[in-house]
Amino acid sequence: MSLIFRSGLSAGMVAVWMLSLASFGEGVAGAEERRNWLKVPERSVKTVQPAAAVPISRFTATSYRYRLAPGDQLVMSVFKIDGYEASVEVLSDGTINLPRLGTVMVWGLTLEEARQKITNGYKQILRRPIVYLDLARQRPIRVTVTGEVERPGIYTLQVNASKSDIDQGLGSGGGWPTLVDVIARAGGITAVGDLSGLELMRPSYTNGGQSKRYKFDYLTVLKNGGHAPNPLVYDGDSVRVVRADSPTTTDLIAGSISNFSPALIQVAVIGEVKSPGSIEVPPNSPLAAAVLKAGGIEPIRGSIARVAVIRTERDGSTSVKKMTYSPDALLSNPNNPPLRQGDIVVVDRNVRTQITDGMNAALEPLDPIVNAMSIFRVLGLPSPFGSDN
User: Regarding the domain delimited by 141-256, which CATH topology (the fold level of the hierarchy) does it fall under?
Assistant: First the structure.
């Protein structure tokens, strides 16, 4: 009996042990399976790239919706309900004050978004209100102009400007100012402005939104014909005119005769010319044109081999380029360079004139004596200065 018990016990223990092994095996397999299922893939190491420039977007006329901001004037009314009319201006904090509703924040909203927000407010006190909201007058437009323009800076332009505003350069008179209007307001492009790469930056009016950057090529249109958009500019826009790397003669001429450039620039022509002084010439005019407008080089005193152009750069540095006057040279020739606003053209004396002027300067203290002696000699009178030997 004890043997059977021991045998049964042993058999039971063996059975339990076998079952345990099986369970353990299944547990190990299950654990391994769970481990594989829960296993997090190894992270790949990524190199952090520097923030890229704002990409160039394709411009469309419907790519902008007007957003309210301080200075906008609004007219509001509720259909068939008296006492809810209001003519208000968006205050500096972006709010308006409406009858029985109080302060409402509208900064950054479109007109429709603002109308819906006001409607939701009036639903708390009115039954199914129908709200009308109109923009009575737009705020002035502030635009930043940088790069190769004559007067970079921040400009304020009026929408639907009056004649007095137009005379003061505060608007275009044709409704909304355009990209060309803004460049003209900044004095036009410089001689090295690149018309093939005008950039318009437009900020995002939503939190976390990305600014838009548009690029326009007007140089190709001016040279070959065709159509290029002249987009409207809005409050907060930025315009940048990049510098041309190596403009050709054709590029310079195309830019100078367009309305992107100022009508005239001022340069000074001094030295041995017939009419020295400040003159006005078209942009990118050759050196020869300025010299000819100053009357040309004095044939006796001037030197065609001793001409220089003094130019003050944007960074305040001054450059002096010496050349030989060549009126027949092409515009791209180093001896007949295109002139920029504020250039000074200097025509120096020739060698003979320098020697003559030097002798006259040395003999100048003796001029009264020599002249007086000459007079007494001509009249045959004895000289009061004594013998002239």
Answer: Outer membrane lipoprotein wza fold like (3.10.560)
